[in-house]
User: Which sequence fits this backbone?
């Protein structure tokens, strides 16, 4: 907001950037949408705190929604639904509850990220005792023809 070229920023960008972030937009995506560089987006974050807050709110809400979905998949969940069928020319709607069992992949992903010290692929184990290595002698018997084969 110093001397130089006027900014392309507009107040309505706050709502637009919030919605873009809800869709998973990265800073590069945001720059592309507004037809500016990522450097400009970073400058707008500094110069316009409401723009920066809109980005943070959108990304946090999107991440929270995905985290909630992953959590439900990891643990299993259920939700109400309606089965709709046509019988003798009439539509029949039957309420039901759909059940989804826990998903192993989602559970592993959750645990590796939330409890990585216990669930990562590579475990580091400390050993505080001594190690004794005994030597052994191996005798190789050569074939009788003397070829070594």
Assistant:
């Amino acid at each position: 907001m110093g001397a130089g070229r006027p900014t392309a920023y507009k107040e309505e960008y706050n709502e637009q950037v919030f919605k873009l972030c809800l869709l998973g937009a990265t800073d590069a995506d945001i720059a592309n949408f507004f037809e500016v560089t990522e450097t400009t987006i970073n400058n707008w974050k500094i110069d316009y705190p409401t723009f920066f807050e809109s980005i943070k709110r959108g990304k946090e809400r999107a991440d929270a929604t995905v985290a909630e979905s992953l959590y439900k998949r990891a643990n299993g969940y259920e939700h109400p639904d309606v089965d709709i069928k046509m019988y003798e020319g009439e539509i029949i709607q039957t309420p039901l509850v759909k059940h989804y069992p826990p998903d192993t992949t989602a559970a592993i992903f959750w645990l590796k990220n939330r409890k990585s010290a216990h669930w990562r692929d590579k475990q580091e184990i400390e050993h505080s005792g001594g190690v004794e290595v005994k030597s052994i002698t191996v005798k190789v018997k050569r074939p009788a023809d003397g070829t070594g084969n």
